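Why do we care about 3D structure at all? Because function follows from shape, and shape follows, mostly, from sequence. That is the central idea of this module. The next example makes it concrete: a single protein chain, its amino acid sequence, and then its structure expressed as tokens.
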Amino acid sequence: VTWPSLPHIFDMSTLPVDLLAEDDHALGRIVLHYRIESSGRPYREIVQSFEEGFPRHQERFEWSLSGSTLRAGDNVTAWVAASDKDTLHGPHVTRSGEFQFVVESQREFHENLLRRLRIVSRHLRELVNVLDLHALPDAEAEEERILKILVGLEADAPHDPLLSNQLRNFIGELRTQLYHYQHQREQAAPKS
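And the structure:
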């Protein structure tokens, strides 16, 4: 089992889980198990059930969290178990390693991103509207603060499926405005 490596797992996410199961007695069933740590309650979803003669199975299972019992804030432990059709000594069950994650709210992530976008836009507008570039003694500190927020927005924007392309492009436009402002400030700086 190969679990996804995602920076954010949302309540509306679909997780790609790569599965490979093999058994010389033929596979019986592959089951996804998960447990919500706060309640300890276990859940399971049958990934694949085999009738006869499948010694090997490989697939990318798409685990839809929106269709599960998981909610934002849940701390989750998941694993996959495969059983065989050994009728003489079994069936035997093999269990994958555990995958732990916290479910984030997609809506809250999106709203937080929009809030940061409004803040950086307002701060940049205030900075650019200073007519006398020497009247703002801590301009470089403000520029660094704006740049830090922009870098965070650029990192988070690709993970927000609710963010429009127009707003994604706006982040780049804000960075261009900041660079333009910095260039103007450097040009207006007294030459030594």
